[in-house]
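Action item from last week, closing it out:
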Amino acid sequence: MNELGNWISQGTQKPFYVRKEFDVKKEIVKAAAYVCGLGQFIFHLNGQKVADHELDPGWTNYDKKIQYVKFDITDLVHTGKNVLGAEVGNGWFIKEDEHYTFSFPAFMPPNPNPYKPFGDELVFAVKLILNYVDGTAETLFADETFKVKEHPVTMSNVYGSETYCAELNQKGWNQIDFDDSKWENAVVVTEQDAPKGELIEQFQPAIKVICSYSAKYVHTVSGRDIYDLGQNVSGMLKFSYRGKKGDVIYIYPAEKLNEAGNVDQVAKNWVTVGNCITCIVGEDDTWQDYRMRFTYFAGRYFAVEKSSESAEIKDIIGESISSAWKTDGTFHCDDTRYVQIYDLVEKAVEANMVSIHTDCPTIERFAWQEPNHLMAPSIMYMKDGRKLWEKFFMDMRIDQLTEEDYFMDLKGNKYFPGAGLIPSQAPCYIHNVLPVPGMGSFFDIIPWGSSGILGVKWHYLFYGDKKVIADNYEMGKRYLEHLKTKQNEDGFINHGLGDWGNPDNQLARENVETAFLYADAITLAEFAEILGKEEDEAGFLQFAESVKENYNRRLLVQNESGKWCYRSFEHKEKIVMTQACEALPLYWGMVPEEKIEDVIDSFRQTLIEKQSFASGEVGLPYIIQTASRYGMNALICSFITRPEHPSYYAFVKNGLTTLGEYWEENPRSHCHDMMGHIIEWYYNGIAGIKPLKPGFKKVLIKPYLPESMNEMSCKYDSVNGKIIVSMRRDDGKIRLDVKADERIDVEIDKTFIV
């Protein structure tokens, strides 16, 4: 037995029901249920769903960690007969591939390390603790007396497809005195076949419904009725249906429509998603209700096909879901463009937070790690990210590689990626360790793995808890040692994606990857100082200094104007500057003091020449923040409000309701938050809320009011209290109002508003 007692099963890889009636003979003072079903579960008590959660438990590496959920059921249990029930579905535990099979692009060979199920059957466990008024207690565990039955969801794909056979629906199954005589007794899973991961309580925010959107009929094309939610979301679909028994309703979700007005499930010729929600009518001419159970759709549009004219559908609702449902910050102004951009990013963040931080909800649903530091400040200003990031760090720690960890290469030989490596995805369900020409491996990308260090830095700055540093310090040390093995004979790293997403394809890998090597080392030195590890601190500082010295010696040159600048390492024949190449060393303090002004001028030159952010996701946050630091806010304003790409406002003009993946009119994914770094500038640039001490215990207010704005208000609810900044343009003067909790030490710099 484990902490929750036995694992039980129906002995199948398909979703199933669980129920158990039990008697309570004495008055209850407190009752709790500890529940887990893998991959996903829905828990019921006495005829009703317990709590407003979706898709419990959190996605983890089930071989190492498994989350259970604790429910307070005191108000739901009563003296006499009671019944508990559960619905168990697949999730990532045993992924089904119907309607969707992930495949890599054509330029990559078949992956010899495909997804592998975490078990042979779906499983369920529960521990019910009843505390009585008389001081006694009783515990109930799952066993062979529990009843199980096949679920009407006959197929559940983690990528968003689901097949519902209404004929299999068990009306009243979660009610007392339901006739379960035709149900089977559960099978107790043997210790050998039981899930291997350590059971821990789910501590990150549960996934919840945050908003509902009614789908509106648009038109009919190619025999399909097209509906529009008006908003791109990750969500649970529900609707009412009727027809003749056996009629089938097919629903295809998508982010966009093609030129013919049909749903487009093809991601830029890269992969066809092919998601389909299928509802099979179970009885004649009766309106019934359907709602997704064990997976979620992603998109804005739906195409509805019906197998016969007798099938009908109405009241299509998309319920947006997210783990990021608690809002910590708000921003308002009278320039609607800025509000629209903010909403674009916020909706993308919400759609990509489902216990893990996904890259996109449509194509991959993988937990790529780079946004967990690059987007951390933007998200943490908007949303409460404290426990979410602690979950992300846990996933990184448990998936960090040891010397013994290996995968298979294309020849069937063992490949050891290296001790200390933090995978680019965590949890990682499909290990893409194949070498990509000129890039290394998608499994090992330095700004991705650096989330285990730099993400921790942001968490500490926002929430002020040293424990997060202590918990992740050894992970960071091991990762830095891994990175040292990637340095070439020149002392640089060329093993990754560089400035990924750069519209000019100027990835500048050596510049970017090696700047992060320095950033990781100098940040670990800060951690060592906080933890009182003086010897470690000295070692990190020494290594960081050696990286910086070599970086400057090889890359810091004078351009045609005689100004010092950083050349792109990969261009040997001429000096090529990119915005990221100049911004990263400025941001991280790598530039020799006597040359800072020159490099600032060179950086400004790269912005002016392009009249836009010519950057990918890796360089962009540092470009924006560096531009703001050195008085280039007006340029930022002009860049983000451009009506054409690269620009945030271009996405709005093109009709997107969430942030696109790349700077283009019809990006591969319409819902990526990886470029949403501008939100950080909304808070620390426009509102000027800059933390000077961890947890915002001390802040600098240094605001900037764009010329197009007459009014602005911003609120951030820090762990030490609220900070509210508002500005108003009045008779050519800017009125500033700052309010902050008495626990917060506030400094105000008005130089940017006079």
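Closing note: The chain is about 25% helix and 30% strand.
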